[in-house]
Design goal:
Length: 122
């Protein structure tokens, strides 16, 4: 899907003209880019988080000559998908992760009970 397809989908689902849908999408994208550029994080619950990631300066190697080169520090955009988005893309992995969490909870409760009893005796 590209930007034009997304604009068409917005226009159809919300009974907008293509021009209106395009302006809405442009506003959304511009707002996210501006916020991340300033160093703010943009979180859309269920979808994910856009934030700025700082990469430190480092030394690299030119593969053709083997010569060491300095690579400057950089600020890059980073996207971290939310749990709902991950589950929509890979439902099996989400179910497996949920099952692992459910199995870990009873073990954690059992471990906490003896500690609480010892605290009462003291």
């Amino acid at each position: 899907m590209n930007k034009t397809d997304l604009i068409l989908r917005l226009a159809e689902q919300h009974e907008l003209s293509k021009a209106e849908a395009g302006r809405i999408l442009d506003t959304l994208l511009d707002t996210v880019v501006t916020a991340v550029k300033k160093g703010d994080a943009v979180t859309i619950p269920g979808f994910g988080t856009f934030k700025q990631h700082a990469r430190a300066a480092r030394t690299g190697v030119n593969p053709s000559t083997g010569e060491k080169i300095k690579i400057a520090a950089a600020k890059l955009p980073k996207f971290s998908p939310g749990a709902t988005f991950k589950a929509a893309v890979d439902p099996k992995a989400a179910a497996k992760k949920a099952g692992a969490k459910a199995a870990a909870k009873p073990a954690a409760k059992k471990a906490a009970k003896p500690a609480a009893k010892k605290a009462k005796k003291a």
